[in-house]
Amino acid sequence: MAYVTRWGIVATGWISQHFFVDLLLDPTSRGVTDVVHKVVAVASRSVQKAEKFITEFGNGVQGIKAYGSYADLFADPEVEVVYVATPHSTHYAVTLQALKAGKHVLCEKPLTINSAQAHHLASYAKSHNLFLMEGVWTRFFPLSLEFQKKLHVEKVIGDIHRVTADLSYKFISDPKSRIYDPLLGGGALLDVGVYAFTWIQMACFLHPSNKRARPCDIRASILKAPSTGVDESTVITMVWDKPHIISTGTCSIVVNSSDDCLVRVQGDLGEVIVPTSTAQPLKFIVKIFPTVEGGEPVITVHDFPIPGPHGLFWEADAVARDIRDGKIVDDIYPIEETLFEMEVFDEVRRQNGVKYPSEIEFVFEH
């Protein structure tokens, strides 16, 4: 019998809409028969907003409760796991509140504003035997799993030497918008940089020779937004001494990524390219260099269409299985990698004198 996971959704913005729609899909449409998702409740800043959200995106499903406060949803005994999709600057406080209510949590990326907050949440969840994961949905795409297999198991391009990854999106330059507001954790790094970073994690951090070691050197440059001082464009270069790889991650909120190559992994025998969105990839290309002078490269395209609107259901399936099996850390994307991500981002901002307001950098006592 399939395990039924009982979800509560906190906040009703764009990403919550997508997650809600994906949760309501029949899992068998993607070949999943062991878990089923049930949305028990939705919370927003008012009951009316929660009700409107359920009506617009609930596909006619009945019985979903609407709450006008997050605390009311956390107090609902039917809710088993909470999906947190509030603004970046509130992730830490809202997630901690959910954990203190005894709920498992999937929190949208970035998990927190800084590594101190992330470490506190991880420690609290572990000590209270609660599941916690940052919602980097890309990690659960079948494409991402096959990407790692090609690199690290089959070693189709031989020894890896260089990795580049980017995600950039041109946002409207509005100082009052979420993306430019320091009080909301604005800037390129936390919004789109997480996705560029996750491909570097898959190629370098998870390289068998690396043994999950930190890079031996991190160098970063930031171009700040003139209007608010958030990171507008960021470059992170890391040296991984054990597998002998150099990686460069880039992100920006003033230009768009190219359409032909967002990720490039270069090795002795060839290269692997991800030409589509690093957040929601649809294919990758393996290009093997010719073995004789004047020969043609062998190019293989690996297509991975998404069997549904968005693809957020794969991470939800993983969360459901973890909770069913009594796990508090996921195997594909463990909290350890989120802590590493947050530590790197702290260092990137330190090197460039970028600070968030003290109002959002706080850490609660245990």
Description:
The protein folds into two domains: 3-138 and 311-333, Rossmann fold, CATH 3.40.50; 142-305, Dihydrodipicolinate Reductase, domain 2. It contains ten helices and 14 strands. The protein has helices at residues 14-23, 47-57, 70-74, 91-100, 115-127, 142-153, 188-205, 313-324, 335-352, 358-361, and strands at residues 3-10, 35-43, 65-67, 81-84, 104-108, 132-135, 160-168, 217-224, 231-240, 245-252, 263-267, 270-274, 283-288, 298-303. A hairpin with an 8-residue loop joins strand 12 (270-274) and strand 13 (283-288).
- Give the count of structural domains: 2
Strand order of the largest sheet: 8-9-10-7-11-12-13-14
Instruction: Give Rg in angstroms.
Output: 21 Å
Broad shape = globular
Separation of the first and last Cα atoms: 39 Å
Task: Tell me the CATH superfamily of the largest domain.
Answer: Dihydrodipicolinate Reductase, domain 2
CATH architecture of the largest domain: 2-Layer Sandwich
Question: What's the count of strands?
Answer: 14
Biggest sheet record: 8 strands, mixed
Treating each run of at least 4 consecutive H or I residues as one helix, how many helices?
Answer: 10
Please name the CATH topology of the largest domain. Answer: Dihydrodipicolinate Reductase, domain 2
Pairing-aware structural class of the strands and helices? Answer: alpha/beta
Helix content: 25-40%
Low-confidence stretches: none
Q: Which CATH top level class of the largest domain fits?
A: Alpha Beta
The pLDDT mean sits at 97
Oligomeric state of this protein: single chain
Beta-sheet strand percentage? Answer: 15-25%
What is the helix/strand order?
EHEHEHEHEHEHEHEEEEEEEHHH
